[in-house]
Amino acid sequence: MQPRTIMNNVAILDHEQTITRGHIKISNGTITEVSDEPFVPKSSLEDQDIVYDHEGKLLMPGLVNTHMHMPMSILRGVSDDLPLDRWLKEVIWPLEGKMTREMARAGIGLSLVESIRSGTTAFSDMYHLGRDDAHELAVSSGLKAQLTRGMITAFSNEQENEQKLQQASEFAKAMNNDSSGRLRGALFPHAPYTNSLSFLHRVRDVAKNDQLDVQIHIAETAKEVEEHVQQFGKRPVEHLLGEEIIGQGSLLVHSVHVSDDELEQMREANVSVSHNPQSNLKLGSGIAPVEKMVDKEIVVSLGTDSAASNNTLDVFTEMRQAAMLHKGTSNRADAITADDAFKMATVNGSKSIGFHKSGLIKEGYDADFILLDANTPHLQPYRHRVGTVVYAANKTDVTDVYVNGQAVMQNRVIVTLDEEKLLYEANRAQQELLGIHE
Ligand SMILES: [Zn+2]
């Protein structure tokens, strides 16, 4: 028998089960057994197993962040309290124009260590810079990642745009075929308002030909929808669905301003949604009709968006926000339940970005999980339910992060990346970008 890793004497929880004190067995990166009793070796062969005693800890699926822009973490704190269009045009785009490859790399490093410390085991990242660095560092980090090369083509010529599309497609295919098996790719035109309709048609054709999924920021603000209707006579989601630019397998980021008809079309087309409640609130973009999406069984997951518009990459906070926000807008305490929010942050997220055997603590699933220190007042009394995690836990409770059964963080120490060096580089990169000499 092959030696196995056993996580013993631990509370276990996912949206399907709660175990007060049990163990899981892991072999070759896969969960092979989940038990509601502590592990006691029965034979000498089992003595070879590596057994970790996690007394007082809670084991749950790792969180999934289905939307972020890693290089932008070096822009954290440079601009707060502006609406999206002014934030982009007056602050973010001019600074991004000056961002070098090294600066983007520093942002990626910072995002990865923040994600690990926040209990994230898989994420989706879109940006136009630093894709080779994102690839290299994501592999080193040990996390699962969907990496995309974003496309903004409204300000460049047709030849340049075609090149951007080819590069994005090559990159997506390389991610899907990466030897680590922990990466995924997709095509990500930034938004309908930063790409022409004819370019989006090209994206559709290339996606079909190369069998790639499409993601897009869409219906983020009322202004975007209004201007789209003026230009095309249709709302953006119904328009792009009708043109088959988005459809089965697509992840629609934001979807804040969608009509009831569009929600029905989204359900029929089987698209999924990345709900980014904090970013939408902070930029004053509005509140997505997530309650209606859940009623229609549209797969909703959670994203932080960038650390420049949030300002963290903490999915625990998004989960709580998603559970709270829609109760407030509907005056219904069960509008989005703790279970709904927990599913969004775990199994729905995994599914939405192409990791179909992740998000549950279950035999046959990838061993992607986190451990929380439950010996802390806000998680006591020691009787765990999904509601305790959603409404009381936070990222500082995370002690261990495992992906495919491999340790990424153990006892609060990140074992895959040099955290101190990455934090130093991120600070230096921001100072250089802002022209600060200290
Ligand atoms: Zn975004």
Structure characterization notes:
The protein has two domains: 5-61 and 358-414, Urease, subunit C, domain 1, CATH 2.30.40; 63-352, Metal-dependent hydrolases (TIM Barrel), CATH 3.20.20. The chain is 38% helix and 22% strand. The chain has helices at 84-97, 101-117, 131-141, 158-176, 197-210, 222-232, 236-242, 260-269, 277-282, 290-295, 315-330, 338-345, 347-352, 386-392, 419-434; strands spanning 5-14, 17-27, 30-35, 50-53, 57-61, 63-68, 120-127, 144-151, 183-184, 188-189, 215-218, 251-254, 272-275, 300-302, 369-373, 398-403, 406-410, 413-414. Strands 1, 2, 3, 4, 5, 15, 16, 17 and 18 form a nine-stranded mixed beta sheet that branches. The model has no long low-confidence stretch (mean pLDDT 96). The site of zinc ion (ZN) has 5 residues, from loops.
The CATH class of the largest domain is: Alpha Beta
User: What's the CATH H-level homologous superfamily of the largest domain?
Assistant: Metal-dependent hydrolases
Distance between the termini: 59 Å
The kinds of small molecule bound in this structure are: zinc ion
Which regions contain 5 or more consecutive residues with pLDDT less than 50? none
Q: Fraction of residues in helices? A: 25-40%
Which structural category do the helix and sheet elements fall into?
A: alpha/beta
Question: Which architecture of the largest domain per CATH?
Answer: Alpha-Beta Barrel
**Radius of gyration based on Cα positions:** 22 Å
Shape: globular
* Strand percent estimate: 15-25%
- Describe the largest sheet: 9 strands, mixed
Counted by DSSP, the helix tally is 15
**CATH fold name of the largest domain:** TIM Barrel
User: How many structural domains?
Assistant: 2
Arithmetic mean of pLDDT: 96
Count of beta strands: 18
